[in-house]
Design goal:
With about 150 residues, the protein is α+β, with helices and mostly antiparallel strands. It has 2 domains: about 50 residues; about 80 residues, Arc Repressor Mutant, subunit A, CATH 1.10.10. About 35% of the residues lie in helices and about 15% in strands. It contains 5 helices and 5 strands; from the N terminus they run βββααβααβα. The strands form 2 sheets. Strands 1-2-3 form a 3-stranded antiparallel sheet, with helices on one face. A two-stranded parallel ribbon has the order 4-5.
Length: about 150
């Protein structure tokens, strides 16, 4: 059974979705809200702790639908430490595909579980934020949040 709840936080309204006990999406796109579940409440709690500077790592069951390459990129993103940023080139290398910089950027853009899979920690080689599915301003807000600003 699929379920989805909404939560209001410092970045606006987020929709948290799960299927069969695993988180499948965290999005700002409006989703139909259902009754909650244990894993959705755990996700909401951990996100609130993150936004309140009380959590640096997430401990949630995730269910990712994507290609082998996309899953490798998403897995590599989860290894980027809280408060750190890496370039798209470095991310491609971490995922085991050093020549696939643009494709790694595309995988970032379709990351279905934002924040928990921290695509906001991936920036351009020149240090600028680059694109972000929720907008570059939102990306900078998340980067600044992790730096304690």
């Amino acid at each position: 059974m699929s379920r989805c709840i909404s939560m209001d936080c410092v970045v606006g309204t987020l929709y948290l979705c799960e299927t069969e006990g695993s988180i499948t999406h965290i999005t700002k796109k409006t989703m139909p809200v259902t009754e909650s579940s244990e894993v959705l409440e755990k996700c909401r709690k951990q996100l609130m702790e993150y936004f309140n500077h009380q959590r640096k790592q997430f401990d949630l069951p995730l269910s990712l639908c994507g290609t082998e390459f996309q899953k490798a990129v998403w897995s590599a993103m989860q290894k980027i430490e809280y408060g750190a940023c890496v370039s798209y080139k470095k991310l491609a290398e971490m995922a085991g595909y050093p020549g696939a910089v643009r494709a790694a950027g595309t995988a970032c853009g379709i990351n279905p579980i934002a924040i928990v899979i921290p695509c906001h920690r991936v920036i351009k080689a020149d240090g600028s934020t680059g694109n972000y599915a929720w907008g570059s301003e939102m990306k900078q807000i998340l980067i600044d949040l992790e730096k304690g600003e």
